[in-house]
Amino acid sequence: MRFEYVWLDGYKPEPSLRSKVKVGEFADIWSFDGSSTQQATGDKSDCILNPTSEYYPGFVMCEVLNADHSPHESNTRVNVPACDDWWFGFEQEYFLYKDGRPLGWPEKGEPRPQGDYYCGVGTENVIGRDVSEAHLQVCLDSGINITGTNAEVALGQWEYQCLGVGVGAGDDLWISRYLLHRVAEDFGVSVNLHPKPQSGDWNGSGMHTNFSNKEMREEGTEQLMTMMCTRLQSRHKIAIANYGSDNHKRLTGKHETQSIKKFSYGVSDRGASIRIPLATVENNWHGYLEDRRPASNADPYKIIKHIVESVT
Ligand code: MG
User: Fold this and answer.
1) Strand, helix or coil at 198?
2) Does 136 lie in the same domain as 239?
3) Boundaries of domain holding 103
4) What is the pLDDT of residues 2-52, one digit of tens each?
5) Do residues 40 and 134 both lie within one domain?
6) Distance from the CA of 47 to the center of ligand 1, in angstroms?
7) How far does the centroid of ligand 1 lie from the alpha carbon of residue 88, in Å?
């Protein structure tokens, strides 16, 4: 069988995805040269790949261990607290790029202003749908719970939504990003996860994170949801430190964001840090909350850790 081992390297502030192919009978631990990924020095270069989740047909998400099998310092997955009854729905936004600019943008200047592109149809209004569709199909085949896709507000910008359980939600999101990069290779385009790749009157890219635990879903009350928002407020600075680099360029208070310097929450409020969905209120406050602060380049393991630790 052919396995594609995927892991996160030691680059900062965000890690990059790496992979290599292993031919064998089953997915067991493996090793790689950590001196080429900023995870080890040349004289002690071996790092270990420990499989955490497997996806059809042979994609393997791995965590990185040191040679003595202790967690490597770049391993953020190991810090996620137990959260098996938690659901996380990530809304991953991204730009497709070609020749150093967003796909479909002219060589000089900008396309016409935002307005027609969001959920647009027709060659004048949308570009890159073949990439989004191919990625969706690959994710569905692999067993990842992708729940939707859409063309986003800027030309060349797209989104998909990915729902997972516990720490596995982080594995799923990382593999979905990996598959997106791989699919984009086939189309000769690249994926840009920067939260504000184009300055000016253009939306940035976020990764809104919808979350719930069993108590919220089954015994939620207005008091419980408000208490959770208040706890998240008290740790706002820590959140920002964990929600992706360059996020201040995106969280400006414009383009459906709250300013990075402020914290607010509200029912149905897309200009708030935390949105309380109308569906949650209408379901007698049973349901989920949406943290709108995470950037598109954020590490989902860090987001999960922050939310679970903040509200419990
Ligand atoms: Mg969106």
Assistant:
1) coil
2) yes
3) 87-311
4) 999 999 999 999 999 999 999 999 889 999 999 999 999 988 899 999 999
5) no
6) 37
7) 16
